[in-house]
Specification:
Elements (H helix, E strand, L loop, with lengths): L1 H14 L5 H17 L11 H10 L33
Length: 91
């Protein structure tokens, strides 16, 4: 996605002469807005980046979609070694 946008900006920079930084900034902003708000992107399911971001924000986090299960019993993890200055307690 970004590669296509960068290519368009590179073409503009090669073909136009800008008299000041403000003119360059205004030109880049004229290309950024349509890219983010109007141009659908195949990688985003044929929606614009802003639409994809809004859909993502409306979707619930994956963390809360899974059911939490509590497994009975003690932890079975026993470290193989301890870092210097730390002790491994035997259980």
């Amino acid at each position: 996605m970004v590669e296509r946008f960068n290519g368009r900006i590179a073409d503009i920079l090669r073909t136009h002469h800008f008299h000041c930084g403000e003119e360059l900034e205004a030109t880049i902003l004229r290309y950024v807005w349509p890219y983010n708000h109007q141009l659908p992107q195949k990688a985003l399911g044929h929606v614009s980046p802003i639409q994809a971001m809004k859909q993502w924000q409306r979707s619930p986090p994956e963390l809360f979609n899974r059911r939490v299960t509590n497994q009975p019993g003690h932890d079975s993890y026993k470290p193989q070694y301890a870092a210097p200055g730390h002790y491994v307690l035997e259980t």
